[in-house]
Amino acid sequence: MCQYRSPPLTLRLPHSMQYYHVLISLLKPLTSAEPDGVRRSLESASRFGAPPHELFLQAKACGEMLFRVYYLRHGFEFLDSGLLAFIPPLIFMSIEDIESGRGGGAANLVARQSTAVLLAKAIFDQGKSFYLAQVIFGLVRERMQPEEFDLVRRFARVEEVTHDRTDRHAEEVKSDWPVDIVGIADDPDRNRLSLLLEQDRERSVRRSAAASSSGSGGSGGSGGSGSS
Q1: How far apart are CA 29 and CA 133, in angstroms?
Q2: Nearest 5 degrees, angle CA 190-CA 160-CA 67?
Q3: Which residues contact 56 (CB under 8 A, 6 or more apart)?
Q4: Using alpha carbons only, how large is the chain's radius of gyration in Å?
Q5: CB 15 within 8 A of CB 172
Q6: What share of the chain is helix, strand, coil (3-state, %, to 5)?
Q7: Which of 136, 146, 192, 143 is nearest to 169 (CA)?
Q8: Could you give phi then psi for residue 57, rounded to 5 degrees?
Q9: pLDDT of 193
Q10: pLDDT by residue (tens digit) across 104-114?
Q11: DSSP 3-state assignment of 178?
Q12: Most confident among 63-72, 143-152, 182-191 (mean pLDDT)
């Protein structure tokens, strides 16, 4: 007699990640505060027992938990190109959550930082054997504040992303992949990988120019010595 056996966790994890990835994409547009979003929220509450915002937060929390389970079971050192389909939306959302929650409690901020650090470590480790992951990590580095990136350094032995590397990524990568897309209503044309790399290169150039000008401005001129 045949008996059903549950597939191993190694096979279930990617499927579960994909499920919550799709769920987050579907729910994100419904969290809008616009009139149409409010109407959908009321319809969702009557049909599913919770408004879209709560369902979205639950789906995001489950997705983040799955990455923690993946890390504890497998680590991120070995190549798994499928991870890159799910990590970018979550880590960019995590970075936004950190910025929006800086005025809240310390415990809440630490929880958000831990998610961003874990996902950044995943992308960095994948980048050791996968060039596209290196490119995505460069985008993540540009979005992170120094205090968060210092946490990443502590756990992932991350080297600094230099201006030359940013230039090289922008020159070598020609991709229309809409990497920073969370909801199905997001505009893909504004989030194409090549466009984001070019924008980051321009920001890096402006920061370098500002640092150079402030450094030259801070050094005082040499005064003349009087002669008797």
Answers
A1: 27
A2: 65
A3: 24, 27, 28, 30, 31
A4: 22
A5: no
A6: 70, 0, 30
A7: 136
A8: -65, -40
A9: 77
A10: 677 788 888 89
A11: strand
A12: 63-72
Check if the beta carbon of residue 121 is closer than 8 Å to that of residue 155. Answer: yes
Block residue for tokens 């616009």: 34
DSSP 21-65: HHHHHHHGGGG--SHHHHHHHHHHHHHHSS-HHHHHHHHHHHHHH
Q: Where are the domains of the chain?
A: 10-35+45-208
Q: Residue 156 and residue 158: Cα distance in Å, rounded?
A: 5
The SS3 call for residue 131 is helix
Nearest Cα neighbor of 87 from 129, 53, 135, 55 is 135
Q: Which residues pair with 188 in a beta bridge?
A: none
Q: Which amino acid does the sequence have at 77?
A: E
- Neighbouring residues of 16: CB distance < 8 A, sequence distance ≥ 6: 66
